[in-house]
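Sample A.
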Amino acid sequence: MSQSVVPKISIKYRLLQILKFVCYSLLLGGGYGFLVVAQDQQTGVTQPLGAGLGQFNSLSVYIVYTLVLLLLVGIWHYRSQRQRQRLLEAHEQVKFREQRLQLALRGSDSEVWDWLSAQNQMFGKRFTAELHYSQDSPFYAFEQHISLIHPDDKDTFLTMWQLFIDNGDLNATFSCTYRLQSRGGQWLWYKDLGKIVAVNTLGEPTRITGSYTNITQSRADEERAQYYGDAFKLTKDWVLIIDENFNQVTANQSLRDVFGWEAEEFAFEPNTLGITPKRLAFYRELFSTLHENDHWRGEELIATKTGEEYHVIINISVSRNRTNNRLHYILVLTDISAQKNAEKELRYLANYDHLTELPNRALLLDRIKHAIDYSIRKKDSIALFFIDLDRFKQINDSLGHECGDLLLKEISNRLTEILRGDDTVARIGGDEFVVLLESFRSNSHLGRIAEKVIREVEKPIMLNNNEVCIGASIGIALYPEDAGNSSELLRNADVAMYHAKQIGRNTFQFFTPRMNFEAKERLRRESELKTAVANNELINHYQPVVDAFTGKAIGVELLMRWRTDEGLVPPMDFIPIAEELGLIIPMTENVLCKGLADLKRWHAVRPGIFLSVNLAPQHFAQDNLLPYVKKLLEEYDLPPGALKLEITESAFISEPQKAIRTMNALSKLGVKLALDDFGTGYSSLSYLKQMPLDIIKIDGSFVSGIGRDKTDEAIVDATLVLAKSLNMSCIAEGVETKEQMLYLVDRQCHFIQGYLYSKPVEADELMEMLMINNIEVTAPELEFV
């Protein structure tokens, strides 16, 4: 279309009614005319219509355009100024922070370092500025940095560095203290801190930035503090510094460890030292009286929050703080708890039995004295039970001291449980216990209590898989009826206990004046026995051991006798006393010398006869038994086989290894060994098979039951089978009837000892019997396998 051509555009009137304006687009540049014609549809008459330009081209619109443009320019200018101001402020803040960081780094003698993974290089001023190495570039190889680390620190640094790199944690901080060598050869201490500031796509660190601090001087200060200032921190004594107003407290490490305080300095509280308010008030008043350079010393009991108590010696010194010119109190506390506990332990040991933890004799006598004082005021009686355990010695010797101790503990627990809390149960030594009863209804009530104690004690007890039973003999004495003081009361209860033992054991007896007389008689007997040993008044009797096949004596057992003006004293009346008094060894040695002298004479008549001697357990506690026996055999020119030593089970159970070594040595010498009273104690077959025994002697208590008691016969049979299995001979003691002899011979036991053949006789009478050479009672001929 030409620019000069005016296009004719017809628009229906209805359309014009709808559209108030017409817009054209996509017109080429040039001049255009716009004609609007209206046509009547009925007549076809046309009429031009007026059309004008829109309001967008008006002056008012242009004014609006200008205002809007100015507004937009103003907004842009305002925002750009605000942005510029923010940038300036941020820049100032960055500069301020950089300055503050630089000041902080300089104040702490620190600088910045960098590590770049791409070149594996380090950046830091210290390489040239502090270590004084010449370097054109501030970067240097990481390997070069590693080469400068002290050999003692290198492995630690590399381990921590590699662990930090491998973790790759952006929030983690690398921290390491180590030494670097300067160009002059000095070792400088550094503390490095760093963080990962950049990682690659794999999350691996590519840059680490941090700071380093030269801590060489602080390290030197620490060393000096170790010599001059660490006394406060490291002293084992507890140090506490309190200001004069009782507001602030400073404590050393030792004290903080005890009380669980974390901070070295903290606010003072009334319960800081765990003392009572009354004691705290005392110290406040004391501090107010102390002046500069004054001292005070005292003892105190302090307690921690956990309730643990400490006895301490407190040394208080007063000093003045040069900074604020105020006084402060220096408390040095020395823990003496161990000393106090030792004193307490000594008091405990002085008053209590260490095994059973019961009161001992000293505390018992003190309590009896107080009970007597109370009894006098109340005009009432008190009672004392003296308890001795029956058969305890057999258990202690047979099963050993460990089992004996377990038994004593068990009895202690039983007595404590069955008696009242107000009653005192004490152990005064060995197997002896004492019970103090400060209130009771009558003597019959005391008897029922004693029966209760006996029933409780005789209950079976398991000792290392061994069931044992014991009894209790109880003596009862009353105050004021039987004694006038505590010692006399205890002594009379002891006398009553011995009387209970004499009438059969496992019973109780009240003290009577007659018992006191018998106790005095026992003391007299002990004195006379000591005199008899000193004057060599003990004599030897001998009882033959006969072979039932031949009717001839093949040996004799030496039996000790004590001859007095009143006649012969039975062994059971003086042997236990001799063992208690420690006289049994010299007594045995004395009669053994006489016995070997008699044996030497008998050998002229019957060369094969032997002498059998009983040894007490005390002999095996000595180390000279073997040389003593060897010396005697040489002195009397007798073969070792002519001597048989009889031992009881208690001789080797108390110290089994020592006893077995001694017996092995005696057996190697040629001396025959016999086990006496087998089965009457608490036998240990494990030890029996280890001992070099030749003979087992069947106790007369079992032999006496032959023909009357199936149990005794079963024990005899079992003993014979055991002896045969162990390749040992048997000698039966206490054979008094032909029936007993035949029973034994029928079971291949033909060595017989007892009244059937002969009672114990003196040496001269036995010599006459040997010289006559009569055939005694013999067993009928039997066939033995």
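Sample B, a different protein:
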Amino acid sequence: MSTEFNDSQHYGFFMNGTTLTSATGFFLRQSELTLAALRAAGFLDNMEDGTVPPADLSKLWLDKNSDPAILKEWNPIGAAWEKVTSQTLFGRVPWRGEWGSSSIYRKGDVVGYNGDVWIAIQASQNHAPAEDAFWDLFLESAAANSVGTTALQDGAVTNAKLADMATSRIKGRTSSGTGDPEDLTAEQVRALLNLGYVAPLKAFGAVGNGVTNDTAAVTAAQASGSIISGEGLTYKVDAVPDLAKFSRAAFKVGSIIHVTRDFLRTDTAKVTNGMLYTAWAQDKCYRMRNEIRVWVNEKESHGDGTGRIALYFSNDGGSTFSFGEYLSAKASGQTLWSAGFDGTNEYLFVRVPAGSTDVPPYTYTLWKRALGTGDTSNYNGAWTKTNITFPTPSGFTGQPVMVHSFTVGHSGSIVVGASYGEGAAAMRSTDGGINWTGHILGSGSSFEEPTIRYDSASGVYCGFLRNGGGGNPRYWVSTDNLATINFWTAASGFFGPNALSSATVSFDIKDGVIHAVTAYRNGVLEGLGTDERASAFYLRGPITTGSFWDQVEAFNLGQLPRREPGGASALGQGSVVVDEDKVHLFYGMEERTGVSGGVGKGNRIANIYQTVVFLRDRGSLFDTRSDIVANRTSNSQLRKVAGIDAFMFPFNDANNWGPTLVSGRPNFVRHVSTLSIASGVLTLTGTRAGLYVIDTEGAAAADDLDTITDADVFDGDTIVLKTSSSSRDVTVKNGTGNINCGADRVLNSASDQIMLVHFGGSWFAFPYADNT
């Protein structure tokens, strides 16, 4: 059987169809039939047959130049077609044993040579294995009990086969040049990848209790080049380090704490943004129900007699604030220095100068209104104005120069602070602000501008006094309802080398903790050698019947810009409102200075800023108690009217019929009601309409109009008057009262009207039409 297919004697008989004829019956050599079957099955798909060899030398050739045909393959060494054996066809094994110079090696053959294992990458004969174009090292010799990596297959080496490593190491290389891998430490890896290394400051020997001097440890940590975590602790040092090199760390230099940005969670924004000198939010900001109210004065300087009192409020936890609301549209020398809410009524203490400018002597007017409760709350209700007189304490003269601060005192009373030229006092009223009792807080010209709060939980009154004598501020306390006052002055050097003189300290109380804000009045007083900037501070400490300065945390807020040479009453003098989980610090910043008064109006710009210190994080995406939201609104009160080129200011109160339209066409908005004449007088006070429908007194057939009164009128105001009925005639009298219309004008038809413009206390007619 060994020669079964090796000669020409093995044939098979085949028939095509069902009938045997000379055309359907034929013989076929069985060896060729087998090869044909293998090729049909795809096993020899690289075989070509014929009398001419294939051009592709990688294919097999069934040479039919002989009978039987011979299956051949190309020998690249001998450059000839050679007969294929059964071993080369079906049983070729890559391992060819030890290399021999006479053997022919094809691509893929594997041989042994000098203890190594090599694989052929192209055909060769008498070419010893070496790293070249013919051979590739497959496995190095195992004589050294190691495995070479030059030609290792993927996954050939497991972790278990690597050299042992120490704990917390990683393979890499930090040595210069090319070389073996090294076992690197975590610090080496961070340095190699240029990653910041966050190391605890305590690792450098720091204590972090705010008492032990950690200067050496902090200096070493800063020099390490790594980012150092303070782990939320306070470190006493001799000088402020580079805060950018640290995280979650506070550094106490003297009494002042300087913090990294992530030590206290804070947010700072502008509350106002007008081209005006908007300032003096000093101790007249408060929470009224869920609303934060910030009162300010808009004026060029202390003595400016053309100022206005304005209100800004927030109903979303201090995230956004309203446009300004004037207490009175008319500019005057009146200013606001104290305001508050007792749970039912809102109080404003307006300082009224004797003359046209804001200089002493002063009197005071109490503006008061009831808010109401729940759905009946009226935030725009009418004010009741009462002139009040504060008592003059013994040794003091006249009325206070300023009335500061507001608190609800014991037994439901209200208490304010009063500053005189001779000292400071607390004023207490038990009848809603009509009558007052004075309690001296400190006598002497250095006792100024007191701030005051009553803590009902402890029954303690406490506050701060501005030191006008060149020293630091004072903390005062009373445990017997203002009968006895004790005070402590912040030690020399507490805020810095120079005293924080003539600076108020405004504050609020939350759960027995005082939260306060203050600032140097200017950089020269601070000792910076320039007026451009001055430091501000956030103070936090417990209500105490001893020295507050021994227990307070005094954080440096940073440098506030100021532009007014030699003054800066607006700078930093602010208010504090604790609203649930947030402490709101309100203070002024000067942004531009220039000529004041007259044509210089608008040269000087200051605005109110708000820094929020978050007391806790409730761990939610957003919670109004502990978060604030970014404002993406326009804050504009203008509304576009669809379909026409016009805008409007919306009003929905009872005083106006509809919104004020702004377009190329003048629009005189009609007053909501028909107004009647009373004894020849038409009263427009409290209204700002442009068109008034008027009626006779008692619906009489005829009436005279002599005078038009309007406490809120401005020169240039223009109004249109028309009668309500053709059956009731109104005669507008010329020169009888404050109306000048050339001659008496009779409005005896519902179509009649007269237009008047106000100037200098009188109304002047300029068009008149008799449209009967």
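Observation for Sample B: The first helix runs from residue 30 to 40.
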